[in-house]
Amino acid sequence: MKGMKNQSIYRIYMWEESLRAVGQEPAGISHDEYRSRQSRLFSQLRPSDLLIITAPHESIRSNDVHYPFRTSSDMLYLCGWEDPDAVFCASNDDGEWKTTLFVQPKDVLKEIWEGRRPGVEGAEANWPVDNAESHESLQDILSSMLVKSSRIFVKMGVDSDVDNLVESEMKSNSRERQKFGLGPISIVDPSMMINELRLRKSNAEIDLMRHSAKIAAQAHIQAMANTKPGVGEWQLEGIIEGLFKYCKTSGIAYPCIIGSGENATILHYTVNDDTCDDGEVILIDAGCEYKGYASDITRSWPVNGKFSDAQAEIYQIVLDAQIAAIDECRVGNSYDAPHKAARRVLAEGLINLGIIDQSLDVALSSDGDLNKWYMHNTGHWLGIDVHDVGIYRPDDEPRLFEEGMVITVEPGLYFGAWRPDVECPERYANIGIRIEDDVLVTKDGPDVLSGDCPKTIANIESIVGSA
Ligand code: GLY
Ligand code: MN
Ligand code: MN
Questions:
Q1: Domains and CATH numbers, the chain
Q2: Ligand 1 first shell, C-beta below 6 A
């Protein structure tokens, strides 16, 4: 099949240097690893349980055009199947867990229009499952699995076909249950169990995440190099998304945030239709998805290549805060230690500049003035989802960092002169700075996966406008 021919023999030289910096593609997730993920999940179930992993249906963009399909992250995590109309099930048969993947069957006409399908045989031969079935038999086969199980582990509200089947089996079996104690008695969301597994990354996952971050770093470098007064935010977006595709990712992990001037002070600005003007700062938050794994990098730089004094003052405070926060990403530290460290450095910096006229304790309090200029958290888990899964406060206690967890560290300061709710200091009007890296917690301390992306003032100034 075409998709099996992976090595390109052609080179387009425009981004050759970036490609070299990104380096060899990592191997990906082995079947053994998928099987071990499955086993770790099954070990938390009882033999009479049924596990069902669902994925959303394709959604229509307009008329005959669909949005690009992306399956559920749990489907990717447990078996790596990417196509639509799939359901992954596991049930216990005489003490052994057996997995079944329902997939789109072979269909020449559909394949002529939409692309080749592995079909049932291909799925069984080449994916980490025991058995594959046609999605057309879902109702019959899943119904017979449902009547034999007591607890059904399924996330409802994702696949309406599965929801309807589960609900109708629950209803139709209620009499059997009362008389004979047979059939499903409860529906349980398996997300919490899967999320705990996904929170700790394996070596193979870390390789993929490092690769994803290396590509995102190159995209930022190319955007910096191509920034000059007059460039369009959308043009930089084109470079970033182009480089993501050039490096063989599936594309963006989230819509690019490319804001110049006052747009840099809008946290999740994605319109990207303004021109970048002399004297402004531009903030770019962009990451890609490589073999299912996200990167998430933000950098901010002067459009004309030289930070003004005011811009440099704010930039250096954010950078100092980010470095202090990264240093807190250590085994045994609380997940919010980076946030606390970042807030402290930001508040001290703003007090020193006279922007905050409060004591440090007051500035940091829940209604202190730091909140005017820094209004978000300092990070989030990163993995298959950009805002990845994992409870931050299990049993209402802060999570402690463990080896293999990956978190973003992304403090910022935003002086929106357009905001009616605050009085923005004129010297800092419309300066928006965020610096975001992807940090792996290791036994030897924080490992910055996105470390290829420059962030000192001198390094940034040497790159901006150099293309
Ligand atoms: N890219 C969104 C975020 O940084 O959380
Ligand atoms: Mn982020
Ligand atoms: Mn981001």
A1: 31-196 (3.40.350.10), 202-463 (3.90.230.10)
A2: 254, 285, 296, 380, 386, 410, 436
